[in-house]
Automatic annotation (TrEMBL):
This is Recombinase family protein. One of its GO terms (molecular function) is DNA binding. Residues 1-131 form the Resolvase/invertase-type recombinase catalytic domain. Gene3D superfamilies: Putative Large Serine Recombinase, Chain B, Domain 2 (3.90.1750.20), Resolvase, N-terminal catalytic domain (3.40.50.1390). Pfam families: Resolvase. It comes from the Bacteria. The lineage of its organism: Bacteria, Pseudomonadati, Bacteroidota, Cytophagia, Cytophagales. PROSITE patterns: RECOMBINASES_3.
């Protein structure tokens, strides 16, 4: 039983099913089958397969949004005698047409995930190309509002980070020496943090993305 528990409870009661457990409601995304609550549910039904006949959810995407992987898991459960029932999307998976419909529901949820990701990525890229900043300000910068848009500006820490680059490039100082040199002015960093900063293209005025 997951999310919309009232409708699932009512469905079970209406059909005379005894509810053995309620799982879900942990705010984990259904796009991954690696989520803890999903694994706990699979372990529970497999360990109690002789007592369980159905897994009840409100929509198929509350079970999983992983597309073919979700269909494969649902098929494995059917082989154990356990059927997935979606209250708001009833299908009869004892028939070939019913199984196809269930697979379509899974595929549509998977497609929706990818479309949302595409829209999100496009929005983020558009913001960056306009000179705006879409997320949390990097170390050394403050996030400000300018003409209704989010922009970033270097702060005191940012100016010290810039000095760290100069000390490395012009004097060849080690990270340890740079950290010691800049601690008094107000820059307190671990060695590995400074290494990450030196390797981050952003601090060379380059914005990278994984699109």
């Amino acid at each position: 039983m997951e999310t919309q528990p009232t409708s699932c409870e009512s469905y079970a009661k209406h059909h005379g099913y005894q509810v053995l457990g309620h799982l879900g409601g942990t705010c984990e995304s259904a796009k991954s089958d690696e989520r803890k609550e999903f694994k706990r549910m699979l372990d529970f039904v497999k360990n109690n397969k002789h007592k369980i006949g159905y897994i009840i959810v409100h929509f198929h995407d509350r079970f999983s949004r992983s597309g073919t992987s979700a269909a494969f898991i649902a098929d494995q459960l059917r082989q154990l005698g356990i059927s997935l029932l979606a209250v708001a999307q009833p299908v009869d998976t004892s028939t070939a047409m019913g199984m196809l419909m269930q697979q379509l529901y899974f595929s549509m949820s998977h497609l929706d995930n990818h479309q949302r990701k595409e829209r999100y990525t496009a929005g983020m890229l558009a913001m960056v190309r306009k000179g705006c900043w879409p997320g949390k300000a990097p170390m050394g910068y403050d996030l400000l509002k300018a003409n209704g848009e989010q922009v970033i500006r270097p702060n005191k820490i940012g100016r010290l980070i810039r000095k760290a680059f100069h000390l490395k490039a012009e004097q060849g100082l080690s990270n340890t020496d740079i950290i010691k040199r800049l601690k008094a002015p107000g820059l307190s960093l671990l060695n590995q943090t400074l290494t990450k900063i030196f390797r981050n293209p952003f601090y060379c005025s380059l914005v990278t993305h994984a699109c």
